[in-house]
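Appendix B.2, paired examples.
Example (i):
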Amino acid sequence: MAGRGTVNRVVQVGVESTPGTAVAADKQLPLTSLVLSRALEHKEYRAQGFKPVTGTKIVKDFGNGQMSGPLNYTEIVYLLSTLVTPTISAAGVNQVETATAAGTVSGTGTATAIVTAAGMTGSPVTVTFNVTTGDTPAVWAALARAALAANANVASFFTVSGSSTAIILTARVAAANDATMNIALDNGTSTGITTAGTSANTTAGSLGATAKKWLFSPTSAGTDAFKTLTIQEGDSNAAVQMAYAILTDFGMSVQLDDCTVSGTLVGRSPANASLTSSPTVVAQLPAGPREIDLYMDTVFGTQGLTPVTDALSVEAAFNNKQALKWVLSTSETSFKETIEVVPTLTFSFQTEHNAQSRTLFASVSTSANPVQYLRLKATGPVIEGSIRYSFILDVAAQVTATEQTDVDGVWGYKYDCVPVYDASFLKPWQITVVNTIASLA
């Protein structure tokens, strides 16, 4: 028999129905490396009068491993599901409504923007804002946008954007076009604003036939549901198999020449096995640096609107998600289960120290440190219509350290941030993936 070459080593995964009960590993991951190891912890004993150890005992037997590979739009969903169970829905086009401000304020008072949308809490929502005599349409449109972004019901359903006289609401969730969606503008106690009862349906909402949206959204308090994997690593001769496999650490690194993911795996002690035959090969769709955008906004409801114009790198890590629970029981030969513990969350980015960077630099002090809504987005090939493969990471974070850097001759600054609890965002982090995979099965 020929020797075993590491070049022939493949990785396959299967999603378990019951944590720790192995299943067929019927999905092959051609982009992601999952290197499995067996971890043995032992005690050594030596009685007086002896130089060598006189006895040993294995006290813990479990599996661990390392995950590495390119950031991608497909295989990643199987690994992220071990951090938090995803919600899977049809992907589509987010509906956009645009209202145009008209009329200069002739009498100081209040004005209103009334937002209607099927499924929005409190619809129709009346948002009131103050205007002053002489406010031009562009001036009071900016006031309207700020008031809309500050309204919890509106901001949770829409992102708010626009410039000059345009007031733009973009639905956060893609859905079939809502004919009732509308922004109505009018005077309250003010005078001079031209009543606009109907907004323009700038982009019609729609759902794709094959595109799917995977939403990974952990809670800030309480236990997250998660999936466990059966991982097989081997070749046609033999393999090792690890059940109850999960990620405890997950990291991302986006550089000017590469985009990678990494992580630490734990699971039950690997056992000898054979590879599941005829696995489905998951489509290889890596993300590259030219597909990356980084956004930074200070108002919830507007995240993803302001690009970091000269971003140079991004690093993110969500570590220590779960720990092994050991018990004294003869029915448990390895750990019994895993439990959530306090995670370690980090996010950092480098950017040219331009005007935008200097503004951020100046905003951080002992008296003020505004929350930054940061979004990393990778945009891939077209799936159907205007729907593309995508990967989006959102965090609400605050700057905790700065460092002057040089990136290929570019004068830059690195901003270390810590993701924080935010009463609007509510999550430690959120990842959204759009692809054509319909389920984990």
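Example (ii):
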Amino acid sequence: MGPAGPQGDTGLTGSMGPAGPQGEQGIQGEPGEPITGGALQAYVYGAATTAPPMTGRFRLNNADQTAATVMWLHFTNNDGINIENYVMDRVAVGDTLYIQDRNDATQWQLYEVTGAVTDSGDYATIPIAWRTGGSSLVTNEQVVIQREGAGLVLGTAAYINIHVGTSAPSSPAVGDVWIDTT
């Protein structure tokens, strides 16, 4: 037999074959991060128990933070950002407002919004009820305020399980989502 000849040119690419069958549904993943509300807003706690609050401040209608039933929140936060649209469009009955001292995590309060937010000119009037807290907030100290959407309470996990496949999950939980891929 003689020596091998030179390699020939590459031929044309053939057409794509049919798609294979759908694979089995994978195992459920770990729960995701809790659903959260809005960005942290910077404010200063003012001890006066009457409206209106000054720019960058919020006040409560009771010196006993656990007995407060109204919060007055200036629309301009301590960073000089006007959040009126956010407050008036997003803060609703059932939401929670988590307030914590910026430098001391032991000083915090959690309130639930109990009524409609009122636009009072430069500030919002927010009906609230105290739910839980740590040490009292200190007058004239910087704090951060975060809104949590209705039904979500700080310290509880709010997870959504998402199932993807061609058949519904065999034992779904309330709130689960199924994405049908057929």
